[in-house]
Amino acid sequence: xxxxxxxxxxxxxxxxxxxxxxKSTQVARLVQQLNERGVKAVAARFPDRTxxxxxxIDSYLSQKADxxxxxxxxxxxxxxxxxxxxxxEDLNRGTTVVCDRYAFSGIAFSAIKxxxxxxxxxxxIGLPAxxxxxxxxxxxxxxxSRGGFGDERYEKTEVQQRVKGAFKRLGExxxxxxxxxxxxxxxxxxxGQEVLRRVEEVLQGAGMDKEVGK
Length: 214
Ligand code: T5A
Ligand code: NA
Prior knowledge:
single chain, alpha/beta, Rossmann fold, 8 helices, binds P1-(5'-adenosyl)P5-(5'-thymidyl)pentaphosphate, binds sodium ion, Thymidylate_kin-like_dom
């Protein structure tokens, strides 16, 4: 490369949404479609239950262990920091990272317990910033009717209702155009087509010539 020229980096795409809104389904689908189109892409997910902190988080979520609200909040954040450098390296090597939940979930699920907004935000400050957050919008009742709902700690309609409100506030705090809400109560393919269109816009945009934000 000529001096000063910079290879375009990968895009950091985050999916957020209530439990069972279809995030994991869309992450897998998007990664596959990008790779088929010759765009290098990998998946990431939080909590990553395979990491050291992830094992404690898994015990907490499956209700085998109880933890203080602050302790679990910090573990979720530490879980992201355990992976942060890998994500940054992938992006800078030109690989797009498609991530299933991120710091927005971290803040939303803790803030509804009464922890202050600023305290909840603090431990995630400095993490790689997404280029696009795709928020899958679904009513708690529609999500509940999907498979597997109800086994884990936060899978209760009342909790999901409050988390929905916290996500709304978070969306309003994100830079214009970087938080996009998609109607998720549709077929997988229909949602997926809109996802791909949004992601292609980001990949073609000027942002990929700039450094990953924080
Ligand atoms: N959490 C997370 C915190 O408290 N703090 C944090 O910092 C973080 C990162 C676990 C919990 O941890 C909390 C939030 C969560 O409560 P998780 O492991 O990601 O987080 O678990 P969930 O988000 O609950 O994952 P789910 O698997 O439940 O939901 P998804 O990924 O949104 O949904 P998905 O794709 O697995 O689909 C669920 C079901 O619906 C079907 C699928 O086949 C599947 O059966 N489905 C559809 N059905 C009809 N139409 C569609 N369009 C469909 N798409 C998928
Ligand atoms: Na999931």
